[in-house]
Each structure stands twice: as C-alpha cells, then as structure tokens.
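explain this:

___
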Amino acid sequence: MLILCFIIGNTWLVFAQYAMPDNKKRDSLLAILLKAKPDTIKVNQIFQLCLIVNRSNMPEELINYAAESLVISQKQNYTRGIAISNYVTGFYQYTKRNYEQSLQAAEKAQQLFEACGDKESAGRCLYRKANILFDLGDYAGSIENFNNALQTWEATGFKQLKGTCSNNLALAHARMGNYSKGVEYAYKAFKASEETGDKKEMAQSLHLMGSLFYEFKNYENAMKNFTAASVIYKELKDDFGFAQNNNMIGEVLLEQGKSNEAYQNFYESLNIYSRPGAPAWGLPWGYSNVGSVYEVQSDSLNAAGDKNASLKKNKAALENYLLSLKKFEAIKDPAGVAEQTIYIGKIYFKLGQPAVAKKYLLRGLDMAIKVGEKKNLALVYLFLSRIDSAEGNASEAYLHYKSYVHYKDSIFNMQSSQNLSLYKTQLDFEKKDHEINLLAAENKLQTALADKQSQRRNFAYLFSALLLATGVYVFVRYKKQSKIKAEEKMLKERLAISQDLHDNIGSTLSSIAVYSEVAKIQGEKNGQQNMNGLLEKISCTSNEMIAEMNDIVWAINPRNDSMEKIIQRMESFAKPLAAARNMHFDLLYDDAVLLLHLPMDKRKNFYLIFKEAVNNAIKYSGAKQINSNITVQGNILLLKVTDDGVGFNLDEEMNANKSSLSGNGLYNMQKRAEELHGLLDISSNVNKGTNVSLKFSLA
C-alpha cells in the first residue's frame, strides 16, 4: 500500500492556499482584467487571480498576464510588480511541472518582494519553493523553506496559510519517516486552522493525524480522526477530500482483514477520482489500493491451498499495479513510481517469473534509495534474497538478506523510538490543555476580584474556595503526572527490552536460517543429500526460535496491551496454520472482552497457552474443526480451545512432556497457568477430541 506517499497528495495539499478556490471569483477577476487599464492596479489584480487558482481551475491566460504585468511594471519602474510577474510565471511553470524554471522564478520574486518590504509575499515565495522541492523529493529542503515561510509570516502576523504550511511540514516529516514529528505539526495545523475557521484545512489535519496514527498501527485513533474528517468533508461537499479520506479508511479495513469492505471504499474513491478536476494522484493511488486488495486475497487463498484462485487474484493485482505505475510516470511522481515498480516485481515473483521480478525490483531499489523509502528498501532486499536463494546464488542471497535485516531493524528501531516520542508529544498536548484551563481559571479569578471589590466577605469565601480547588487540582495533577512518569519509565524499559531482543537475537537467528536454506540448495545441487536432514533441522529450529522470539517481542511491546490486539494476534496465528492442514478454525468472543486491557505478564501467558493449545491440535489431533471461545464473567476471563480430533491419554502425555520437553508442551501450559494464578483444565479421550480450558482473575 502507498501509505504516506499519497495520503495527502502532492498537488492537493501544497496547492490548497485557501479552503477551495471559488471559480466564480476567478471568472469575475478574469472579466475585470479584460477591461482593466494597463497600470499597477491591473498588476495587483493579476496577483490576486494567481492567489485563488490551482491546477484544477487555472486559466491559460495567466502566463500572458504574467508577461503583461512585467511590461507594465518595467515601464513604471514598479519593483513589486516585477516581483509579481516572476511569482505568477513561477506558479504557472509549477502547474506545468517545469520545476527548474518555477524554482528560478520563485527565487527571483522572493528577492524582489524582500527588497520592497513585502514580507508576506516573500513568505509566499518561500512556501512555493518548499512545494517545488517537495514534489522533487527533496523533503529536507522542503522542510527548511516551509519553516522559513512560517517564521516570515510570524513577523507580519499573517495567519491565513499557517495551517496549510504546518500540514505540509507534517507530511514532509512523514515522508522522511519521522511520523511522531508529523503528528506534532498536524496537531499545530489543526489548532491554527481552528483559529482561522478554515474547515477545509481542519479536515486535512484530522485526515493527516489519522494517517500518521495508522503508521503507528494505532487503528482506533486513526479511525476516530478519519471519521471526524469525513463529517467535515461531507459538510463542505468536498468529494475529492472525502475520497482521499475514504481511501485511508479502506487501508485500515484492509489491515484488519476486512478486504471486501476495503475494496468497496477503494472502488468508491476510484470512481470519484475519475471525475473532471480530480487531483492527478487520485487515479494511480486508487488503482494501487485495488491491487493491494487483490494481493491480500491472493495470499489468503494461497495459504488455504487454492492455487488457481490465488493465481487469478495475483494477475488482477498486477494489472492494477501496472495501471498505477503508468499514471504515476505520467505525473512524474518519483515516490509513486518507485513503490509501484517494487509491487510489480513482488507480484511477478509470486507468479513464478523471477527474472522479470528481479528486473523490476532492481529498478525499484534504485528509485527507492533516491527518495529514501526505507520500508520499501527492506521489501526489495527480502524478495531479492528469495530470488537468489532459488537460483542457488548463496553469496548474493546472504548479502541481500543481510541488507533486508538491516533496513527492517532500522525501521523497528525508528518506530520504537517514535512510539516513545509520540507518547511524549501526546503528554505535551495534554500539558498545554492543562495550562489553558489553568489560565482560564486565573482569568475568572481576576474578573471576580474586579467585580466584587465591595463584597470583601464574599470574595474571601470565593478566594478560599478557589484556593482549595487549586490545591485539589495541583494535588490531582501531581498524582496524575507521577503516574504518567511511572508509565513512561516502564514504557522505555519495555521498548528497550523489545528492541534488544529484536536486534541481538533476531538478526543472528535470521542469518542461521538463511545460511541453512542456502546450504541446503547447494547440497541438493551437488548431490550431497546426506546433509539435508541436518540442515533441515537447523532451519526449522532457528525458524521456531525466531517465532518464539517474535512472540516475546510482541508480548513486551506496550502497543499490544488491548484485548483487540491480542485477538488479532490469535487469529493471525491460528487461521493460516489451520487452513494449511485443511482444518477450520473459529474464534468467538464476547463484546465485553474487547474492552479489556491485560498487563504484559498476563497477556504473554494467556497468548502462549492459547498458541500451544492450538498448535497441539493442528499438529497431532487430525481434527476437522478447532474452536476457541473467550468470555468474561465478572472479574474472571475464560478461554476454551476444543477440537474434534483423535484425542490422547492425558497422564501419559503429561509425563512425557515433563521429562523430555523441558518446559514446552502440556507441562509448560500448566506452569504458565500457575503464573497467572489461574486454573488450567485439559480433558481428552482417545477418538473423542480434546478440550483445553483456562480460567484466571483479571485483578
């Protein structure tokens, strides 16, 4: 999926100098200009026309007016007019994607505006330069110019573009992978737009915050922001904004395994983007999203063993990715082209065409490096390592896999760091809200003092009450801040443990796995069949260790404390594994279960008991149906896992596990139940299936 590359597309946000340009106002100005005298007044009217148009409603006459304003201004030695001419010329060239000419004109206009003391317009030039650099993929340069524009406007008190500029800064930081900084600027943009009453920009800020929460996999907050944005877009009757937001809701649905609902959202947005005046990035983004649905469905069908249906879905995905690539190439969007090229390479690999896949992947790799998309770099190296392994190229396979681990770890480390940064940002927002509330209380007190000077006794009572209230507030705030600091300290420790496990153990085990796989391929080529058994054991063992390590990392990560995340993890583990053995798995749970939050130790033991029970059923029961049920009764959580398989002799199996598996299997499940201070009951009879029941207190 495209995620933040096109959450708010290049031409949509950066051209939105105002909420939505009024075509009637544009036409009115054009009519006035036709009759206007060639003087400085006309030059300034041309400037006003330039400020209210964008790519979707830009008149071609604009470039002619730019030339006319230059002639008029040069004759009358009107410096600001010459600056206006350059600004209008630069804007026109920008809309035609002639970036070099546009940048030169904006630079010249800025210097002239500064020379005649027009700082507001000089800020607009900085803003335009930032837009150009953004489109060119120079996000660092874009951030610098956006910040300079804000500082320039701060000095003049100009607020009209503050929200838009802050949103652009949020997006630029997000493009560079700094999502927590993106949230910070999106929040600032929302506050600035709220101050000016710019509902269009408020909706964009909400949309962008939702998109950034999506990057943190915080789907609850993402959906809250998307829903709020949808309300405003509908109120404004902004179909393109609604489609943009609707796409991101589809992204969340797809991540949650609701591919059919996601497809409906994507298809609805795709139809809207087919209308005249739609942003240029709309259609390619839409085609890519539809392709991602087909790819996800293909992977599910492949896991279930339906190869023919999976093949058809992959072909449909390829068709949409190719359409998306063609359209991104047409609008010269480097990030879009890079991502679609990689996706196409990935699909060709799944279709069994490694040579074609490698060609696209290498091309995508080169472009992804240029635009700095780390997530895509990891994806490219992973598939290149798989292609090299299949071709028996051991050294290249190892190097590519090593690069994959490096970028994957880099993303993991960055996300872990940004989770903490996002947490601190949210604390800052809360602190600011507290300060605003306290200031409001102080203002009320001052008003009361001014109005009630003659009523000293009443004032004394009021003052005492306020003093008491302030004391209570300070005490409650102190307790809350102490709790927040304690939680933050625990969060740091958990993230540190999670990161250390991932860095120190994960990469080592991954290397063992890839070495074993490559050696096995070489052994088969050279006829050394005797070593395959041992290598297979090494590979299986290391992969099991990786899975166990991932479970521990998942259990420690504070983002997964909610029961909703636990259930998602349970389903993502059990369903594909059961489908691969032609078994059917169902997981049922009460609605009240979703409101629970389990602490780290209980969550870990709860999930691992479930995993062991399901794993045993899939491996040994020969069942057709496996059912799991989670219920909450008062303060007690109950988990059941049942199957209709061959069953076993419980006493014999427990003794065997206790003596030989050293903490795994049924004996290990019992130990974990004891750590939960709960009760584990396992009942099984030969040819009558197995029932595993876990009960423990939530207190």
In short: The first helix runs from residue 10 to 13. The beta strands are 584-589, 625-633, 636-643, 679-684, 690-697.
